[in-house]
Design a protein that fits this description.
Helix content: 10-25%
Distance between the termini: 25 Å
Strand content: 25-35%
Shape: elongated
Largest sheet: 8 strands, mixed
Number of helices: 11
């Protein structure tokens, strides 16, 4: 707990400081909601993420063989991930954050990797109204990929199991009943994978809804079995540890294809390990590419062993929401797809809907030749696909399962003609660029890593993401307002800037550059992970991390007093690497600016700022 060492206001007189180095005392002014003049370099701190749930305060750790995690006091192992040796989920110690715990673990020589237990989400997009009177003619995606022609060869095989690693599956749905093998529910830690959200059931119906039963819709491989494994909750999200366990369990239970219509922007080594491991065992992982409408990598789709699927419309054009970057492998119908969900039928859009078209097609190929390897299935679908437009490269094809079966058997069946619905009218083009991001900060988190933060930009239709530049060169994109740049050179200087972009491709002006000089080694004092740990109408706790043990100090002022030069400070002389300083007596609804400072045992001082707080009422 920080100690309140000084709460009297200090007026920093430039003239006095220049002449004598003295700091004069001023009267205590009242706080204000602001003067209308905001410093251009303020980065606004937002309330801390709720860590009341177990998932929000967990890290994934892999230790070296024969080692245990001992270097971080208070770190308790919650569970192991069966199938990934040395890998487990650990709780974050009280008083620390996920970022602080991960930073400490990464310095432990016994740790192979440490990462947050990220939350991934189902990748549906712009859900449509329920259809109460479905007809086969409404299944334009199945017709587009020539599934009816493929059925002359095979309708699937119950020995070919496709795992739906998702929100679960409604195994009582009239078009799915009897098709579903019940796997585990890792979210609720039981053996009932009933769908409580609808997303997984929609995916399952496209793959294997029962055919020729006079009811509803039909799946692409309608004699195939679905293995339901629930890893996402009723909100459509789930953590990486459960998803990794779901992947491994699917292979263990005999799945030859795993469909994952889920993802997120964060890279998880544990998730990659799981995908790589089941691929080596002969399982094809089909993954939705993401719905951000840009070229940013989405995970697990971006991993080399994942078969990444983008979405097309009725005219074989890329949908506006589909990812299109270099990690994309193939495309499939993903707009207004009718399928089973929650005891009924519904149209949904997203790469979530495109991915099961590919999983179903893969099941048909494996029904024809069960000895096909994952790579052979990928090659057959990619080499026989039909042309698309709107993706990054001309090599991206939309699957044609009839042609793919022909490539496997040596004789391609004649494709059946289909009538496609008319394409909807195209809305007026958006030409307005987002606002320029401001408040850009670049802090050296270590001798080789920089943490970059900025304020959210605005746009008339919404900001899709941000482009990050180092020394004028684009180094990556992100959908958040922070970015980590790694593998840098100790002692070198770098200049960073960012630009916002929207779904139409409009790009803002680049932010004012933030410069940073890397320390020569990790033993040199640095500040990182500045954030708001807690907030009430009258107080705020500011947290940050230092690379070595150092003291804590926060200088702060109301927005009204900022330009007058009046400051208060709270400081703590305790030497630590995890800092938490509480600012008391703040005014509800007020605006405050602050800087954080730490001093190490050698007397080196590092300051980071300027940050801003908006107090609640």
């Amino acid at each position: 707990m920080s100690t309140l060492r000084q709460t009297s206001l200090i007026r920093l007189s430039g003239a006095l400081l220049a002449l004598s180095g003295l700091v004069g005392c001023g009267a205590v002014p009242g706080a204000s909601t602001g003067t209308g003049l905001t410093p251009p370099d303020v980065t606004w701190l937002t309330p801390a993420v709720d860590t009341s749930s177990a998932e929000a305060a967990q890290v994934l750790v892999k230790t070296k063989e024969g080692q245990a995690v001992r270097s971080v006091q208070g770190l308790m192992k919650i569970q192991s991930i069966e199938g990934l040796p040395g890998t487990g989920v650990y709780s974050v110690p009280a008083g620390s954050t996920v970022a602080e715990t991960v930073a400490k673990l990464r310095k432990d020589p016994n740790v192979v990797y440490a990462e947050p237990n990220y939350r991934y989400h189902a990748l549906e997009y712009n859900a449509k109204a329920t259809v109460n009177d479905p007809k086969f003619s409404q299944l334009w995606g199945i017709q587009k990929i020539q599934a009816p022609a493929a059925w002359d060869t095979t309708q699937g095989d119950p020995n070919v199991i496709v795992a739906v690693v998702d929100t679960g599956v409604d195994y009582n749905h009239p078009d799915l009943k009897g098709q579903v093998i019940k796997g585990p529910d890792f979210g609720n830690n039981d053996n009932d994978p009933m769908d409580d959200q609808g997303h997984g059931s929609h995916v399952a119906g496209t793959i294997a809804a029962i055919g020729n039963n006079g009811t509803g819709v039909v799946g692409i491989a309608y004699k195939t079995k679905i293995l339901a494994i629930k890893v996402l909750g009723s909100d459509g999200s789930g953590d990486t540890s459960n998803i990794a366990k779901g992947i491994l369990k699917a292979a263990e239970m005999g799945a030859k294809v795993i469909n994952m219509s889920l993802g997120g922007p964060q890279q998880s080594q544990a998730l990659k390990d799981a995908v790589d491991q089941v691929t080596a065992k002969g399982v094809l992982c089909v993954v939705a590419a993401g719905n951000d409408g840009n070229s940013t990598a989405n995970y697990p789709a971006a991993y080399p062993n994942a078969f990444s699927v983008g979405a097309t419309d009725q005219s074989d054009k890329r949908t506006s929401f589909s990812q299109y970057g270099s990690t994309l492998d193939i495309a499939a119908p993903g707009l207004n797809i009718l399928s089973t969900t929650e005891g009924d039928y519904k149209q949904e859009s997203g790469t979530s809907m495109a991915s099961p078209h590919v999983a179903g097609a893969a099941a048909l190929l494996l029904a024809k030749n069960p000895q096909l390897t994952p790579q052979q299935v990928r090659d057959a679908l990619q080499s026989t696909g039909d042309p698309t437009s709107g993706f990054s490269g001309a090599t991206i094809k939309r699957i044609n399962v009839a042609k793919a079966l022909g490539a496997v058997t040596g004789t391609a069946p004649s494709p059946a003609p289909s009538t496609q619905p008319s394409e909807p009218s195209t809305p007026a083009a958006d030409t307005q660029a987002p606002s320029m991001p401001n408040g850009l900060k670049a802090l050296a988190a270590s001798a080789t890593q920089v943490q970059i933060d900025w304020n959210e930009a605005t746009d008339n239709t919404g900001v899709t993401g941000y482009k990050v530049f180092r020394n004028g060169q684009l180094i990556g994109t992100t959908t958040s307002t922070s970015y980590q740049d790694s593998n840098l050179s100790p002692g070198q200087s770098y200049a960073y800037t960012v630009a916002a972009y929207d779904a139409a491709g409009n790009v803002s002006a680049q932010a004012t550059p933030a410069n940073v000089t890397m320390p020569s080694s990790n033993s040199e004092l640095t500040i990182s992970s500045v954030g708001l740990k807690s907030l009430s109408p009258t107080s705020a706790t500011i947290g940050w991390s230092t690379s070595v043990e150092a003291t804590s100090r926060v200088d702060y002022t109301s927005s009204a007093m900022y330009f007058a030069g009046y400051w208060q400070n709270v400081q703590d002389a305790a030497m630590t690497t995890a800092h938490a300083v509480t600012l008391p007596g703040l005014q509800p609804g007020g605006i405050y600016y602050l800087k954080v400072t730490s001093v190490d045992a050698q007397g080196k001082r590092v300051t980071a700022g300027l940050y801003g707080l908006r107090m609640p009422r």
